[in-house]
Sequence to fold (55 residues):
Amino acid sequence: MASATCALCGRQAESEDVPLTWATSMENGRQLLYCDVCARENVRGIEGKLDSVYW
Ligand SMILES: [Zn+2]
Fold:
């Protein structure tokens, strides 16, 4: 298994397991990973799909 890599910044997890602080998102049948930093910055965007009026 390749180590977990952030889909946004390319940062790699230190272990093969996805850290608990990382976020996962299923898009088009593929699982995307976001590191803790990107997850925090993009949590609105991810959840924003449910409430795009907010922006
Ligand atoms: Zn990242």
